[in-house]
Amino acid sequence: MTPGNAIGPRVFLLCGRSFSGKSTLAARLAAITGALVVSLDGLNLERGLVSVEGVSAEEWGKTHEEARRLLARGLAEGRDVVFDDTACFRVLRDDVRRVAAAAGAVTVLLFLDVPRSELEARRAEAARTGSRAPVCDEVFDRHVAAFEEPGPDEAPIRLFPEAALRAYLESL
Fold first, then answer.
1. Is 120 a domain residue?
2. Which domain does 45 fall in, by range?
3. 153 within domain boundaries
4. Total domains in the fold of the chain
């Protein structure tokens, strides 16, 4: 159990479209809670799978499998875990919840519901500065169009605008 958390391990399941700020939030959560961060983009980078044209579904499946393994290991150690992924499909979010439940952990779904115009601005800034790998228009458009927002039954905590995000972080 992470210090300061009397309820047992938590999984902070991040959910949001590309460029919504998930990795930035993951780092902030880790700094506040001491949680382990499992980053799917980070795992892909370690596997040499960074491509402007995107990563194949088969390779994403392998990355998700490794991420779930790391999640289970962190929870077995009693740690809070930040699962840094787009979590763009309900089935992916359900997989994370199953791993968490099997370990007796509580899942907190944090949805960064950032408007498309803001995503585009952040994407342009990242391309200008080189702060992250570029994503081609076709991959970005396909991702945004296919994204399945969490439904009310998933009890997401919506963290946009920035004031909502700050308030949530201050509540931890």
1. yes
2. 10-171
3. yes
4. 1
SS3 111: strand
d(CA 19, CA 41): 12
Q: Which two tokens stand for residue 56?
A: 């194949």
For the segment 3-44, what is each residue's pLDDT rounded down to a tens digit? 445 578 999 999 999 999 999 999 999 999 999 999 999 999
Continuous H helices in the chain: 22-33, 40-46, 57-76, 90-102, 116-129, 137-146, 162-171
Phi-psi region of 78 (alpha: psi -120 to 50; beta: other; left: phi over 0): left
Q: Which residue has the tokens 């962190």?
A: 74
Distance CA 20, CA 52 (A): 18
CATH of the domain at 146: 3.40.50.300
pTM for this model (two decimals):
0.91
On whether residue 139 sits in a domain, the answer given is: yes
